[in-house]
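Entry for the shared binder. Reason: the reviewer on the internal report wants the predicted structure included alongside the sequence.
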Amino acid sequence: MDHSPLRAALADVVAIPVTPYDAEGAVEQDTYRALLRRLLDGGVRAVTPNGNTGEFYALTLAERRVVTELTMEETGDRAAVLVGVGHDVATAVEAARHAREVGAGMVMVHQPVHPYVSQDGWVDYHRAIAEAVPELGVVPYLRNPLIEGSAIARLGEACPNVIGVKYAVPDAARFAAVARDAGLDRFVWVAGLAELYAPSYWAVGATGFTSGLVNVAPKVSLDMLGALRAGDYAGAMKVWEQIRPFEDLRAAHQSANNVSVVKEALAALGLCRRDIRPPSSALPEPQRAEVAALVQGWAI
């Protein structure tokens, strides 16, 4: 199969939409649609429903299916959709097949949640999912620094539809080595740690980056993308400096408030409730005003 259009779609800002809740704690479908339209109207051309910013692990299986369906209905042909799947192999395969049924072109496979992950087991896990949906592009989400480039290369040899890697290990030198050991041109390398890491990862081989901040300010993320594509690292770092305090809040305490900060910013803009599910929690009062002040001067 020709995966060129899917590969091109990954070399972009890959937005991870939040999942808004209503006063009773259920997924607020109309608000989700509105937030997604805002991303699309803002120029976003790749979205990942059921990503970590969408609270993948806090959603039920039924809710994840609903989010997938809402995304496909609202997106149409306006953007590429890579649906987040994961958990055990059977659950991930079921979700991937559902994504295929509703028209998604790709799936992103969350890092296996297991205390004992071997190189061979990592390959087998992703291979089982990729072989179940050969029509779809498959993108492993790699957060484990112990997975080597050779393992990714073996996966790519076995499964031609594994077309990209979302690399989220906070080590640019490690990323550069892994990407080259796996095949720099074989896969589309997506910087999975968003805007703060995008310039350094881009310099050594990434051609796209994920973003949760894009929910709040699509133009800011797309400005960074434009600068990186033009080789304007000074321009990219101006955006970096602008968003650093916001992203630092998200990254604090091992990213405990990663999604909370994004939802707080959206709440400050009147776009959705700040509610978030355990084991995450809403921001305490002192930080709410800080987040509102940070985004006030952005081009929203």
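Summary line for the report: Residues 169 and 175 are 7 Å apart (CA to CA).
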